[in-house]
Write a structure and sequence with these properties.
The chain has helices at residues 15-24, 41-48, 67-79, 94-102, 115-128, 150-162, 179-188, 207-215, 232-235, 251-263, 289-294, 300-306, 323-337, 347-354, 361-375, 405-419, 424-431, 435-445, and strands at 4-11, 29-35, 52-56, 84-90, 107-111, 169-172, 198-201, 216-217, 229-230, 240-244, 265-267, 274-276, 280-285, 309-312, 344-345, 380-381. By secondary structure, it is α/β, with parallel strands linked by helices. Helix 13 (323-337) packs across helix 15 (361-375) and helix 16 crosses helix 17.
């Protein structure tokens, strides 16, 4: 049996595990070292320079939830990106191992392990070597995956008309519908695509950092301003600026943003000099901005400034034709990322995914596919691979059984009210009737 010229470091506080691996691994690998505590992990890695670290997820400390294992995984990935990390965990902690793979682990082994599975994983990890540390060539943003639903077709036609212009675009829709992906598509088709789009998550900015992050600051402007800082508006000069979660800007800061958009110049915090900017603005929100304007929570003049063109992304449950191609795209992506032999998805599994609620929309589908690819035992994903329970299925697809048109109308309205959780604006829109007409029907049927 050929011995690999590779070095394995085992980190496990169980002496029996270390003893077993000290017998099992040396015939297959050039050098094996074991340690019983992660406290010496970093120093041992520096001196031993292993190709693979086999890291236990739980240690006999006050922290016995796998969090310590995740911490040391993160430290290894941060300090030694060339070294592959394979996790060891009990069956009950498989979700932790999945989280570990999302954070950069090469693979995981469930205790008690199968020897051949352990060897195969370690050998594959060794062969991977330093490939992950090689610089990756930058590619242009791929084209958006468009569905064939009437709503998405209409959005696509609008995007094709609007993208080449510098018109300001407001993208609305539920969380996870792909507003950032649509913003990237608008930028990709624009005349500014040669430069990368600059993105800002407004929801993640504290009020104290709002002006500094967006407009920049000069050295000495405030206590921690040790150097000059160029804000996102200046960084986006000549390209597209994407402001995500625009509805989260506090009212008293909205006037500052409006002033910059009107004057097309920024003044850094602590400075008096204005700098002209040339940007194309795209914004996104999951909030009802017109309602916020009516309630005095969002400035009307700012609202009209940011929505020259509005694109409303429908939720995934209304564009189920996209589920199969999206699932295939995510399967390919994560099979490659996690080195899993998963090549496709069965018709039964696709049908199951189409019946799900997807309250988190495309992002939820993406996360579910990622998790399923990691745990899959088969090349083609089947329904039972997804572990979806009945509570996750969309119960809105009720068959209508009625003996009269009035009975049918009542059932349709009741289903719509339940589907949209009593939001009568959405119900009226879905049924293509006015709100007064809807109110009359609700009264008529005692809904």
């Amino acid at each position: 049996m050929l011995k690999l010229k590779s070095k394995i470091l085992v980190v496990d506080d169980n002496a029996g595990v270390r003893a077993t691996l000290n017998i099992l691994l040396p015939p297959r690998f050039e050098a094996v070292e074991t340690v019983g505590t992660p406290k010496v992990l970093i120093s041992t890695v520096r001196s031993f320079r292993p190709d693979v670290v086999l890291l236990d997820m739980n240690f006999e400390t006050d922290i016995n939830t796998g969090n310590e294992g995740l911490y040391w995984l993160s430290e290894l990935r941060r300090q030694f990106p060339d070294i592959q990390v394979v996790l060891m965990t009990a069956y009950a902690d498989v979700p932790l191992a999945v989280e570990g793979m999302k954070r950069g682990a090469f693979d995981f082994i469930v205790k008690p392990w199968e020897n051949e599975r352990l060897m195969a994983v370690l050998e594959t990890a060794c062969r991977q070597g330093k490939a992950d540390s090689q610089p990756i060539a930058k590619h242009h943003q791929p084209a958006m995956l468009w569905g064939a639903s009437p709503a998405m077709t209409a959005i696509r036609h609008t995007v094709e008309k609007v993208a080449p212009t510098d018109a300001t675009v407001l993208i609305t829709g539920e969380n996870g519908t792909g507003k950032d992906v649509l913003a990237n598509e608008i930028h990709r088709l624009s005349s500014r695509a040669a430069k990368p789009m600059v993105s800002v998550d407004i929801g993640a900015l504290s009020e104290s950092l709002f002006e500094s992050e967006l407009f920049g600051h000069v050295k000495g402007a405030f206590t921690d301003a040790r150097t000059d800082h160029t804000g996102k508006f200046e960084q986006a000069n000549g390209t597209t600026l994407f402001l995500d979660e625009i509805g989260n800007i506090p009212l008293h800061l909205q006037s500052k943003l409006l002033r910059v958009l009107q004057n097309r110049c920024v003044t850094k915090v602590g400075d008096t000099k204005s700098v002209p900017i040339d940007i194309r603005l795209v914004c996104a929100t999951n909030k009802d901005l017109p309602a916020m304007v009516r309630d005095g929570q969002f400035r009307e003049d700012l609202y009209y400034r940011i929505n020259t063109v509005t694109l409303q992304l429908p939720p995934l449950r209304e564009r189920t034709d996209e589920i199969e191609p999206l699932a295939s795209l995510f399967i390919e992506r994560y099979a490659k990322k996690y080195r899993r032999n998963v090549t496709g998805i069965s018709e039964g599994a696709v049908d199951l995914l189409r019946r799900c609620r997807w309250s988190g929309n495309v992002r939820e589908l993406q996360n579910r596919i990622e998790q399923t690819v990691i745990l899959a035992e088969n090349e083609v994903l089947r329904p039972d691979d997804f572990q979806i329970n009945d509570s996750e299925l969309n119960t809105m697809a009720f068959p209508i059984q009625a003996e009269s048109l009035e009975d049918a109308e009542e059932q349709v309205i009741r289903n719509a009210v339940k589907k949209y959780n009593g939001n009568l604006t959405l119900v009226a829109k879905a049924l293509n009737i006015s709100r007064p007409t809807l109110y009359n029907r609700l009264k008529k049927y005692g809904i």
